[in-house]
Design goal:
about 80% helix, mainly alpha, about 0% strand, about 180 residues
Length: about 180
């Protein structure tokens, strides 16, 4: 005698496409390398801009001091130095914030890459699907048992036979062993 549940499961298995063996790991690695390279380039450009800015300011300051003469303690020289100090301090804060933003961006990129590199295991997904299917059959058996239907025992037995490694199969076996299931 052919069981309708066996037929249903066989048709469902035949209708499902084969699972993908793996994701394109090379693509993920290239994307991670490109992102890391881009972040390094951006950091290098910002560093270069900062260094050039400081060199230009120092050169400009030396030129101003040379035009004012050798007296570096004059009020004009002190005022220029204080202004320059405020500007450098402002630039330093901007560069500090930029570096912090780059560090946050790099941390986010690393977290995103970590999520991309670990695709779900296909076998684990199959086990989860089997467990869900067993739970569905078990619930149907429990529903039929609550209605005093004799088909409940067949569903409990099918759960144990078709999904032996699942929690639902253990629960179905316990229910069959308890003797409370309606006998056909």
């Amino acid at each position: 005698m052919k069981d309708p549940l066996d037929d249903l499961l066989a048709r469902a298995d035949a209708a499902m496409p084969a699972p993908h063996a793996s994701t394109d790991i090379a693509k993920v690695v290239r994307r991670r390398a490109r992102r890391t390279t881009n972040l390094r380039i951006a950091a290098a450009v910002l560093l270069a801009v900062g260094v050039v800015s400081m060199v230009l300011r120092a050169t400009h300051r030396n030129q101003i001091l040379a035009h004012q003469g050798e007296n570096k303690n004059s009020p004009a020289s002190i005022a220029i130095l204080q202004t320059e100090l405020r500007e450098l301090d402002s630039e330093a804060r901007i560069h500090e914030k930029t570096a912090a933003a780059l560090a946050r961006q790099l941390a986010l990129a690393k977290r995103a890459d970590a999520l991309l590199v670990d695709p779900p295991d296909p076998l684990e997904r199959v086990h989860e699907a089997r467990s869900r299917a067993a739970s569905i059959v078990l619930r149907d058996a429990e529903r039929l048992e609550s209605l005093n239907r004799p088909e409940a025992q067949n569903l409990y037995q099918n759960t144990v036979r078709l999904f032996p490694e699942t929690q639902a199969a253990r629960a179905a076996q316990e229910r069959l062993n308890s003797g409370g299931v309606i006998k056909t």
